[in-house]
Amino acid sequence: MSKPQSQNESIGLIALMLTIIRRDLLLAVRHAGQWLNPLFFFVIVVSLFPLGVGPGPNTLAIIAPGVLWVSALLATLLSLDSLFLRDRRDGTLEQLVLSGHPLSVIVIAKVLAHWLLSGLPLLLISPLLGVFMQLPVTALSTLMISLFLGTLTLSLIGAIGAALTVSLNQSGVLLSLLVLPLSVPVLIFGAGAVVAAASMLPVLGHLSLLAAMFALALALAPLAAAAALRVGVSAGS
Amino acid sequence: MNNTLEAKGVTIWRGETLLLDAVDLTVGPGEVLQLAGANGSGKTTLLGALCGLAELDEGEVHWNGKLLHKDRAAFADALLYLGHRPGISGGLTPVENLELFCALNGGDAANIESVLDELSLGLQSMLPCRVLSAGQQRRVALARLRLQQRKLWILDEPLTSLDTAGLDWVRTRIAEQAAANGSVIFTTHQVLNLDSVPIQTLHLEASA
What we know:
- The complex is a heterodimer of chains A (237) and B (208).
- Chain A starts with a helix and ends with a helix.
- The longest helix of chain A has 33 residues, at 204-236.
- Chain A has 237 residues and is mainly alpha-helical.
- Chain A contains 9 helices and no strands.
- Chain A is 85% helix and 0% strand.
- The radius of gyration of chain A is 19 Å and the shape is globular.
- In chain A, helix 2 (33-53) packs parallel to helix 6 (103-132) and helix 6 runs antiparallel to helix 7.
- Chain B is built from 7 helices and 9 strands; from the N terminus they run βββαββαβααααβαββ.
- In chain B, the strands form 2 sheets. A 5-stranded parallel sheet of chain B has the order 6-7-8-3-9, with helices on both faces. In chain B, strands 2-1-4-5 form a 4-stranded antiparallel sheet, covered by helices on one side.
- The chains are: A mainly alpha (237), B alpha/beta (208).
- Chains A and B meet through helix 1, helix 4 and helix 5 of A and helix 1, helix 2 and helix 3 of B.
């Protein structure tokens, strides 16, 4: 008796997640700046480095993993404040909280939509920028895998920060202060994986740790963000 | 008590100000309650407290005799909350906005077009909501009253920026809801009279 009911419930939840993702993507298509800004930021910062440090292939190859990863991290941070703030301003957030559905599931849907708009474009353009930064071609696949796991984790961690600052109207600096310390491990192992790949060393250790961090963030971040959103909504009403 | 919202001694401080001082209220099936009071007397905060959004400093809110946060799912299934910010995204069309509501808390998505027609928004149903006037955006939010069958309506300023036709439409909906043994709690600064149902009024004093 209870089993088909819970099955129906989970089908309903998945349908709700798809509706929320579809809505966020639709909104992003109509405000292209929202997903183009982080991408432009990523491309511009990476392409400024050869101009700043000189185009010597050896120098560039040494700094490439760090530059690519730091730029991806900052680009993700830049896109975070749009995660819940717009929904809070127009009152959608209150409706999401009151809907009676598990808020953490709604948070996962919002984070997934956010990653499709900010992480995925970075991921797709990263091989091009890697070649641009003289990264060995053999390291490109590791760059993409590490960015895939890393940007997902960063979006999840960022959701906690975005939820904690949702009742503030200007969240920029505080949000970065909250999220940066938590994202340092991701940066270390993400860039470490690419450095190892460029030196022909085994990368599985780094990538496994990145995957572990992703699993941990996926399990805990939605719960933390949901709790923070409830507080944020009550503080503003 | 079935389908009754009961608040006992709701007290909320905002910093050093006592905003709500031990407010008691009961709304049962078929009853309509208007919250009255000057600007800043805490009407919106009280509505937030009644639907479980705002934290109470003291007091309790019960639905069906159970504390709100003890039985959130049952209350969520009974509640239609239309906030001061109605949850309409400017980038989406009225139809897309209402589809999200129907996915979130149930409702007849197939009827969206006909309800919009009824609210004379048929021609605007494919335009993004940000190009609509304030009154038209309010109408989009109010379409939920028709789409979602709920026991308890909590409406914050539902009449703001509506014209007389829109006002009549809301009045009819509230009367229907009361006739169907639903409950309505709302705030407004306008005078609203229903022929069929008496409107109870609760006056909130502005804090000194």
